[in-house]
From TrEMBL:
This is Hydrolase. Keywords: Hydrolase. Transmembrane segments: none annotated. It comes from Flavobacterium gilvum. Gene3D superfamilies: 2.60.40.1190. InterPro entries: Carb-bd_dom_fam9 (IPR010502), DUF5916 (IPR045670). Pfam families: CBM9_1 (PF06452), DUF5916 (PF19313). The keyword Hydrolase applies. It comes from the Bacteria. GO terms for biological process: carbohydrate catabolic process. GO terms for molecular function: carbohydrate binding; hydrolase activity, hydrolyzing O-glycosyl compounds. Residues 229-797 form the DUF5916 domain.
Length: 797
């Protein structure tokens, strides 16, 4: 009897394993009648459609079947305009379904249902559409490395809470996705259900967490045949009005323009912006930047965030270069000073074309033109003014070819080019990338070779190459990599790079649990070793051993601790800000602790603290970030963040004198306060508050001269005031209304101010008063964007 039971158990296990290893198949049903997206699923067409069921847990207990009380049933039908998805999500306690109302593309504390669609079934990119129990839409383009929620598609959905759980109905037009022009479509597809109160996620086709690649584990959607998709042509005209006032002047501005989206075919799309307006994009977080590098700024302009995954290949595209800071400074004569220096360059127009053939070849082209920009210069003796070009008419373009194969591998060629009119700097960068994975997605080999050429008075070129080998599956995973960057490698005309002229071996090994234990829901330990050696001198510029332990408990609180050892002193080749010079940085030890409270609670908090101790008397860094949030209701929440750090006896360059490069030993404090508030009137209408106050100072108390060997000697004769005190204030209060699909009205009140001096003020209240007593700028703006579908207009006329 025991042998029989063991045999049955064996065959059940084998059968289950085979089932999990197979891709589930769902057939879509063709329809001709109209479907109403109302969350009721009353049309008869749904009755005869196939059902996708038998969901299994994705996280945390991977592979566990969903309970009968929470069974999920999904159906798919289609016509020549769109695919339609209906999901019945059963729940024995509908009153406990989490349903916080948030802004678009924000999950919040809410249950959600999602569909992942890969129109080429190549296992490398999904179009993902989410609907929360509160009816909020989210969408993104997903690869194995990124999830781009800045991408927004136009689609329809409805969520309704019922006595048995909740229902989701979705209409996803073909214009929102990409697929081949084959008569018979075979798409990769998966459905996801998040049950927020249990912090559990289920999928229709099992996503095995032992396998590192998630996108290759979609099921299959078949049955879509001989569709005749409509013309994909959309216009998004806009009109904006701005009223701006500060202490000295006021002005009114009216702007108008149009965005155009055109589907060249079912796989390729052209996007164009004519007379762009980015006046209501989120403000940049101004800081006191004492580092040798420029501040990296977030991209908030939709054109440069939506659907740019092809152009991001190889990290050669930093979109803030387009319309960013001017590329040159004016040459000043005796008795001249600059009276007006624009901090940005106006964008005249931009287009991008992207898509993929049915054989997996992705093609992308982006082109942007920026305006000639002048600085105003005044002669302080004669008061005569003149203008000088600081940025000529400039053209930026990117060309990408990305060939996918074997459903998990790719080879990519990318070229970026910057051409400035006249005798200004031009640049060209090319890159060849590859990412090869075994059939089982257990191992990966990836790398690149990139070549840069810059045309200036002194032409120069350089290259970068890297090779990485990874084990990407199982409980134990590891990575071995090497990188070499030559001295003149420079991608900063259209990309962003800080460090060059070094080679870098790197290795890591990690262990993780794949299913919950009696102690943890999740657990991971990672050990890293990194070494960077400067090519010219052979000196170490980076060296560390890092151990990271992260775990979440059964109460879904998350803890993480990192310890970093730099056992030898390193050399900084950038802080001196002169080619060939470097400064010694002592050996050090640092730690980082992170804690996040379960986000299901009305009150939740995140905490992060760090500590760095240098092998140098009284030199240390420490700081804390604390982020409490209170959810008063499903509509109203407030979130505050305090970010405070101290650098005691920090050292950095401040000047040069007859003795050479001058360094200062200084104490620094950095304080940033942010407040974010949201009141959702509905899932299409909300009031939003975003406030930021930043204060930082650098108090120099001892000066040194940098020696040729990288060490510092006292410079008691230097007595110039190089102290810095910096304040920044930003406030955005906005009303947003999505009054139609793809159409939005935003009413925004904004005020901001900057205040900077070399007189240290250590009183927080005085600093706060000073920034408000500076030139506070107030702006009121109204912007309306309206989405026009060519097919709708054509049918009406």
């Amino acid at each position: 009897m025991t042998k029989i039971i063991n045999s049955i158990a064996f065959f059940i296990i084998i059968g289950t394993s085979l089932l999990y290893g197979q891709k589930k198949i769902l057939n879509a049903k063709s329809i001709t009648s109209r479907i109403s997206i109302d969350g009721k699923i009353l049309e008869g067409e749904w009755d005869s459609a196939e059902t996708a069921a038998d969901f299994v847990m994705y996280q945390p207990d991977n592979g566990k079947p969903i309970s009968v009380n929470k069974k999920s049933e999904v159906k798919v039908i289609y016509d020549n305009d769109a695919v339609y998805i209906a999901a019945k999500l059963f729940d024995e306690n509908p009153s406990q379904i989490k349903k916080e109302i948030t802004n678009r593309d924000v999950f919040g504390v809410s249950d959600y249902f999602a569909v992942f669609i890969n129109g080429f079934n190549d296992g490398q990119q999904d179009f993902r559409f989410y609907v929360t129990a509160a009816g909020v839409q989210l969408d993104c383009i997903a690869t194995e490395d990124t999830k781009d929620f800045s991408w927004d598609a136009i689609w329809d959905s409805k969520a309704v809470i019922t006595n048995d759980g909740w229902i989701v109905e979705m209409k996803i037009p073909y214009a929102a996705i990409r697929f081949s022009n084959s008569d018979k479509q075979v798409w990769g597809i998966n459905f996801l259900r998040n049950i927020q109160r249990d912090v559990q996620v289920y999928s229709w086709n099992r996503i095995d967490t032992k396998i590192g690649a998630e996108l290759t584990q979609n099921g299959l959607l078949e049955g879509i045949e001989n569709i005749k998709t409509p013309t994909r042509l959309f216009f998004i005209p806009y009109a904006s009005f701005y009223y701006q006032k500060d202490q000295f002047q006021s002005d009114k501005t009216f702007k108008g323009g149009v965005d155009i989206k055109y589907g060249i075919n079912d796989a390729f799309t052209l996007d164009a912006i004519l007379v762009p307006d980015f006046g209501q994009t989120k403000f940049d977080n101004a800081i006191l930047n004492l580092e040798p590098f420029e501040q990296k700024l977030d991209e908030n302009r939709p054109f440069f965030t939506e659907g740019t995954e092809l152009f991001s290949k190889g990290n050669l595209f930093y979109s803030r270069r387009i319309g960013g800071y001017p590329s040159s400074d004016p040459a000043l004569k005796e008795n001249e000073k600059i009276t007006d220096f624009p901090s940005t360059v106006d964008l005249l127009n931009a287009i991008k074309i992207s898509g993929r053939t049915k054989k997996g070849l992705g093609i992308g082209f982006l082109n942007a033109v920026t305006e000639k920009t002048y600085a105003t210069i005044k002669d302080t003796v004669t008061n005569a003014e003149r203008k000088e070009v600081i940025e000529p008419l400039a053209n930026y373009n990117i060309f990408v070819l990305d060939q996918r194969f074997n459903q998990n591998s790719s080879v990519t060629f990318i070229n970026t080019n910057t051409i400035r009119n006249g005798s200004f700097r031009d640049a060209n960068v090319s890159g060849l990338l590859f990412d090869l994975n075994t059939k089982e997605n257990a191992y990966s080999l990836n790398g690149d070779f990139k070549y840069s050429k810059v045309n200036t008075v002194d032409d120069y070129d350089g290259f970068k190459t890297a090779l990485n080998f990874e084990k990407t599956s199982g409980k134990i995973r590891y990575e071995l990599s090497g990188k070499y960057i030559s001295e003149n490698y420079d991608v900063n005309d259209l990309g962003l790079i800080y460090y060059t002229n070094y080679y870098n071996p790197y290795a890591n090994v990690s262990y993780r649990i794949l299913n919950p234990t009696s102690v943890f829901n999740t657990f991971k330990i990672l050990q890293e070793a990194n070494l960077e050696i400067q090519n010219t001198t052979g000196k170490i510029q980076e060296d560390y051993l890092k151990t990271t332990i992260g775990a979440s408990t059964f109460k879904n609180n998350y803890y993480e601790f990192s310890l970093v050892l730099t056992p030898k002193g390193t050399f900084d080749f950038y802080e001196p800000r002169e080619v060939g010079r470097y400064v010694y940085v002592p050996k050090r030890i640092s730690s980082l602790f992170t804690f996040e409270l379960n986000k299901n609670h009305a009150f939740t908090v995140g905490l992060q603290s760090f500590f760095v101790k240098y092998d140098e008397e009284n030199r240390l860094n420490y700081g804390v970030f604390i982020n409490p949030k209170y959810r008063f209701s499903n509509q109203f929440s407030l979130e505050y963040a305090l970010d405070y750090s101290v650098k005691k006896n920090d050292r950095g360059r401040v000047d040069s004198d007859d003795l050479g490069i001058v360094f200062a030993e200084r104490n620094r404090e950095i304080l940033q306060n942010t407040l974010v508030g949201k009141f959702a009137i509905s899932n299409r209408m909300s009031l939003n508050l975003d406030v930021r106050y930043y204060w930082s100072y650098a108090d120099n108390h001892e000066f040194f001269t940098l020696q040729d060997d990288g060490y510092l000697t006292p410079n008691p004769g230097y007595n110039l005031n190089k102290n810095r005190n910096f304040n920044s204030w930003n406030l955005d209060l906005s009303y947003s209304w999505w009054f139609a699909p793809g159409s939005e009205m935003i009413l925004l009140y904004r005020n901001y101010a900057l205040e900077e001096t070399n007189q240290i003020e250590k009183s927080l209240s005085n600093n706060f008063s000073d920034v408000f007593n500076s030139n506070l700028t107030n702006i009121i703006s109204l912007s309306i964007r309206y989405y026009i579908d060519y097919n709708v207009v054509k049918n009406k006329f």
